[in-house]
Amino acid sequence: MRSLYADHVLERLQFVTEGTLQQRLLTCMQTAIAEGVFPRATRLPATRDLARELSVSRNTVLNVYENLMAQGYVTARTGSGTWIAENLPEGSLNSQRTPEPFTASPRSLAAISKRGASLLGHANASPYQWGAFVPGAPDVTQFPHKLFSQIQARLSREPEIDRLIYSSNGGCPQLREALADYLSVARSVRAEADQIIITEGIHQAVDLVTRVLCDAGDTVWIEEPGYWGTRNLLRINGLKIQAREVDAQGIVPDLAPRARAPKMIFVTPSHQYPLGVHLSLERRKQLLDLARKHKTWLVEDDYDSEFRFSGQPFPALQGFEPDAPVIYMGTFSKTLYPALRIGYLVVPKSLAQPLRIAAAELYRGGHLLVQRALAEFIQKGHYVAHIRRMRKLYSQRRRFLAGLIERYLGPAFMPQASHEAGLHLVIPLPAGCDDVAIAALALRRGVKVRPLSQYYMLPQERRGLLLGYACVDERQCQDAFGTLKACLVDAGILRKEGVERV
User: Fold this and answer.
1) What is the pLDDT of residues 157-210, one digit of tens each?
2) Interatomic CA distance for residues 459 and 210, integer angstroms
3) Which domains does the chain have, with CATH numbers?
4) ∠ Cα 417 386 193 (to 5°)
5) For the chain: N or C, fewer Cβ within 10 A?
6) What angle do CA 30, 35, 38 make, to 5 degrees?
7) Cα-based distances in Å from 279 to 11, 185, 249, 408, 459
8) Model confidence over 9-34: pLDDT tens digits?
9) Distance between CA atoms of 163 and 113, rounded to whole angstroms?
């Protein structure tokens, strides 16, 4: 009986007609590995077995395996055979280069719309969401899963009917009440429970407010650099995006826009993503004045404000003034864990009912049992206690990573913004260097960093690397940092001579 690997290769060979048999076989296996049909870190059949199943010479298969190994698709383990690599070569991964505009094959043109092609052409979500140094990944192993499961199990034994049907009122009432109480104390947010709408994270929140409050062609401002996920959602919803520079005080607004004023301004005031600066008092006043004057909505993404490790906490922009024209977005992805898929909007009272209705029409909300469990988790003090523990842990890990940077790379590579908040650091690199190539090199060696240049909408010379530290203990951090330093040496960013070993 043939293996599944052989079956797949034989099917593919029918459609690959150019080149010698060895070249065709190599192409088929490269494609299958790159597309994930042959999963990473799995063992390939022995060359003798695969040759017999394909009815080709063993030398042909041996040559194919050697080519795959030379290109980084597979590795050989002594006494254990040939295994597909965990980290594939740069050319096989969508996430390792700045995305090129999507070009559909003639067969797929009829199936994919222009809007769909634009979305695919700018897709930037990484397949790597855990490990050193994935930015923004919390340590999900530290969450009190047993406690939360006990709450869920108890509530699930005799669930109320309204927790088993669609949500049409903006989410679980108890969770909205718990959030209103928590946000007023922790973030100085001015909100009643009826102003809160539960979402499945920041992406859904952005999608909801732009669909309801903007028309195609409306102008919106975003931070430059900024979160690519927000940028892509705005693009797919047909909005005209204008990137506004971020300096040491935060976003730089155009106080007298000559063209049409923006319908929305998307900001991360407490901890700018990705640079880490906070929005100054002067800029906050300027944005609020501009928004009131031009009837613009400020959309505040408060994605990781709980993790400030020293100094005075920065309150939310939403609570800065009464009746501020601010739509506030938050999430539990950083404080608890991303797969929970629970976020929230705090909206002005005039928008609460329209956005609740729109959310029900667009998304048919659910997960009410989990939301009810989360409400109890917050109300009984478990949420605040968990944040307190994680703040201490992340602070230690941040100091450890900053110490490695200062000791082994030097002051020139220290983060330029204050590094006493958040879940990642940005190390600057020489202007104009290829930070995408450096990130790809690090990924091939098992270290997952993000290039700063990919967070910019417009071409510029600034370069750097985002290093997430939250989900990496000190031993893993030190090992991964040694690998990253070697990548910087190999890329010519660091001189090999005189560089201390990690």
Assistant:
1) 988 877 787 777 899 999 999 999 999 999 999 999 999 999 999 999 999 999
2) 26
3) 4-86 (1.10.10.10), 123-158+381-502 (3.90.1150.10), 160-380 (3.40.640.10)
4) 90
5) N
6) 70
7) 57, 20, 5, 31, 24
8) 888 887 787 888 888 899 999 989 98
9) 37
